[in-house]
Specification:
Layout (H helix, E strand, L loop, with lengths): L1 E4 L17 E4 L2 E7 L2 E2 L2 E2 L4 H18 L7 E8 L5 H12 L5 E6 L8 E8 L6
Parallel strand pairs: 6-7
Antiparallel strand pairs: 1-2, 2-3, 3-8, 4-5, 6-8
Enzyme class: hydrolase
Pfam family, one: Ribonuc_L-PSP
GO molecular function: deaminase activity
Length: 130
Amino acid sequence: MIKRYGVEGGKGTGGQALPFAKAVAADGWLYVSGQTPMVDGEIIDGGIVAQSTQAIQNCLDIMTEAGFGKEDIVHMKVFLSDARYFQSFNKVFKSFFSEHPPARVCCVADLVVDCMVEVDLTCFNAKFKS
């Protein structure tokens, strides 16, 4: 069975409706769509630390809504708009995941939203396996 989260209310910059689910669960797996440092459809002010914190928290909020915990995170993808943000992002990452660090990839990309960072998560929990 496939369950989609956030299809009915995802909002992007300027309040536009987003054409994808915030997350999709299938057979114990949860795929959280890329999250930017957005609150109420607007990118938050602040530098890479504030934006990284918000982007990760947005992923965790979606994951928690679906019933998953930090210990269920298998992999994170990180997209930074500038390689100079790498060390600062790592400090934020470590503050969230010191006990259960997931596997991770981090790359520099030209983001389609005017922000410094975007992250997504892949989670697994056998209790949701069909």
